[in-house]
Amino acid sequence: MAEQTEPKWEGKVTAELKDSTAELIWPFLEDFCNIDKFFPNLHTCYRAEGTPGQPGLVRHWQPGLVRHCEADIGWANEKLLTIDPTNRSLSYEILENNIGLKNYVATLKVFPMEGDGCKIEWSFIADPGEGWGLEDLVSYVDYCLQFMAKKMEDAVIKAEI
Predict the structure, then answer these.
(1) Taking the model in full, what pTM does it have?
(2) DSSP H or E run through 47
(3) Which of 12, 19, 113, 128 reaches 20 to 30 Å from 121, CA-CA?
(4) CA 65 distance to own-chain centroid
């Protein structure tokens, strides 16, 4: 008998930044090992192997210490698969993690919007996760993207002052 497999999970979320251009936001995402400056609750992100800005680069991230928390603290090793500065997009895969995600591959893109501003799109495909539902994962990715977009836009505005 053939083994039944669950269908892959897919999701896509977007964030609109009214006061920043794609040219100003892209460098924050392009710096693959800089995610701890913008992602919620991350304390550490560093290059584990590979060359900065090149496919094959592996980053390791983990949150800071959480007081009064006995739960496992998540971590992941993620590998940059593609990076396209001209089209402002990158894709990466999670190699190892303890957050229950399997065969997770994500793509982030930054698009100019008509008039002013830009849009960040985060899409992913993954096997069903342990301890996750698809709606939970999409909601979490959306929360993280909105958080990151605000921090990036705040950094752009602060730099312009």
Answers:
(1) 0.90
(2) strand 42-49
(3) 128
(4) 21
